[in-house]
């Protein structure tokens, strides 16, 4: 006899485990199916984000930034560092300790909320009456669980580059790049998006020569172009990343000791480079492999994403989908909020998620963050807007930190003064953007931010000054 549940979640990433917890809080009997195993072969909750994505990459970013500060930044403070050395093993051990602590924390939360954790690959077999049958396969073991509602939270997987085999020895995906036990002398990166820039910058700071090859003709096309231009200047001039755009990869040949990449671009023609390691990060695809048994017809779009309506419902009755497996921005916090909303809708509540107020963050150095419309989007839509911009070079706290590159830009409606977008590149942009998100959620105006007292000296004053700048009344610029 199968175990019976009210809600069964397939996937224990940031969307799935949060959905399971919220559903349990609402009084449902909940199970969560997940197949991820850590390098030791043990079940590990948290999905890509906690195991081989967001969390481990931030740990390595912090380690590499500390190394760079000690090597290049401390002297300005009168701090001399002699005999500086780098221990890749200790850096990886620290990263793994953080990952373990957080994944075990999810297991504790499941136990606390009486959520049944089923380890294995989940596959929807079909519906019997009003109950879905879900098969859970783990190695040789097989069991079936039954549930009234199913939430698909299977996330995404690295998109493959045709003809290129990932072996995580010479040619790496994000998991392989996070697990390097030594600094490669020459690191090639195919893809200059979030993953490529973050991981490329980690190993550049630790001493690797890093070359990023991006297919798009423009650098960071999703960001406000003023931010993208500043980022390109800082990453190449100050941080030594080599970035080429408009690249078409012709071939990748991996040998025992090196990887040879041949490409061409409209600007520079045909080129060849040899790398010790090659990271391939050309986007991510929805993870739907083996999710459905024959005869279970779930509507998907032309790119393979599960189609949902504005509430998260799929084409199948009582089947919901959230996060990366559905169309939309592949952001962990988006998946979590959708998970909460779906659990509450199953309970008959009417939650709301404003997708126009979801923040985007890149944890580079300097950090990049934004929420709302870019200036280019407003121009394309014919929206009459005004803007204010303030440089961190004029911010006392940023100067004291020694991180004065970048700026904050605010865009507001020229007629109503309502904030339409906020864009930042600079120190702690990931934290500063939260104030802008709150403001936009509550339909604030630039004057609202301008009238709020901000602590001095603080980085948040840059946002205050940008708001003042919308009406050309900046005090320090």
From TrEMBL:
Entry's EC annotation: 1.8.1.4
One GO term describing the cellular component: cytoplasm
Organism (species): Formivibrio citricus
Family: Belongs to the class-I pyridine nucleotide-disulfide oxidoreductase family.
Record-level Gene Ontology MF annotations: dihydrolipoyl dehydrogenase (NADH) activity; flavin adenine dinucleotide binding
PANTHER family listed in its UniProt record: DIHYDROLIPOYL DEHYDROGENASE, DISULFIDE OXIDOREDUCTASE
Names of the cofactor(s): FAD
Chain ranges of the FAD/NAD(P)-binding domain: 5-339
Major location category of this protein: cytoplasm
Domain of life: Bacteria
Record: active site: 456
Assigned keywords, A-Z: Cytoplasm, Disulfide bond, FAD, Flavoprotein, NAD, Nucleotide-binding, Oxidoreductase, Redox-active center
Biological process, per Gene Ontology: 2-oxoglutarate metabolic process
Further facts: The active site is a redox-active disulfide bond.
Domain (Pyridine nucleotide-disulphide oxidoreductase dimerisation): residue spans on this chain: 358-467
Disulfide bonds: 49-54
Top enzyme category: oxidoreductase
InterPro entries found in the cross-reference section: Class-I_Pyr_Nuc-Dis_Oxidored, FAD/NAD-bd_sf, FAD/NAD-binding_dom, FAD/NAD-linked_Rdtase_dimer_sf, Lipoamide_DH, Pyr_nuc-diS_OxRdtase, Pyr_nucl-diS_OxRdtase_dimer, Pyr_OxRdtase_I_AS
Free-text cofactor note: Binds 1 FAD per subunit.
Catalytic reactions of this protein: N(6)-[(R)-dihydrolipoyl]-L-lysyl-[protein] + NAD(+) = N(6)-[(R)-lipoyl]-L-lysyl-[protein] + NADH + H(+)
Protein residues bound to FAD: 58, 122, 154-156, 324, 330-333
Compartments, as annotated in UniProt: Cytoplasm
Entries under PROSITE patterns matching the protein: PYRIDINE_REDOX_1
Protein name per the record: Dihydrolipoyl dehydrogenase
